[in-house]
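A reminder before we start the practical. When you read a complex entry, don't treat the lines as separate problems. The point of joint prediction is that each chain is placed relative to the others, so the output describes one connected object in space. Small molecules and nucleic acid strands, if listed, are placed in the same frame. In the example below there are two entries. Take a minute to note the order of the lines before looking further.
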Amino acid sequence: ILNVEQSPQSLHVQEGDSTNFTCSFPSSNFYALHWYRWETAKSPEALFVMTLNGDEKKKGRISATLNTKEGYSYLYIKGSQPEDSATYLCASLYGNNRLAFGKGNQVVVIP
Amino acid sequence: GAGVSQSPSNKVTEKGKDVELRCDPISGHTALYWYRQSLGQGLEFLIYFQGNSAPDKSGLPSDRFSAERTGGSVSTLTIQRTQQEDSAVYLCASSLVATPSNTIYFGEGSWLTVV
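Here is the predicted structure of the whole assembly.
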């Protein structure tokens, strides 16, 4: 089982501020890196699937980058809004068919 | 279209009882996964089905856990003789096919509490 780590575990962000957090994963036998947003009582929402070194993806105010050689991905939230409050999960695909998840970055946006 | 559907949403059961959790994947998705998240832990892989191939059961924590997928669609996860450590949210997911670049879609989960 892969060891996927996310930091920081939790953070409070003032509305309007930008923030970012890190996902680190083993760089060997890399297949893909997934990001999800998980709000309480809802299903995890798929944000990005990235496979190539140097990949950058964007969805609205949220973007992500991928470095497969050194084994990390950054997730950025620009101009945080209260609706961005959620737990952000990253997961590395291994064995081509299963995801190894980190414990998540819990984000609280303060109005 | 409809997403991944799971039932029940919440289940409280007594220690030692059996429980069944159901998953309806997105129509047309051939790959189906079960994960769980226990308190304070990350999501943990349990089992994976791909079409008519033999399932990958390598994540099941004990022989009290089993799962089946009938007709390549609906899946049932069964936990026999439940223990308190089985308390968790059990998430089902599906994807069109199991390739690295495909998005995996999750349901809302079944929250299981064993008392």
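Discuss with your neighbour: Chain A has a mean pLDDT of 94. What might explain this?
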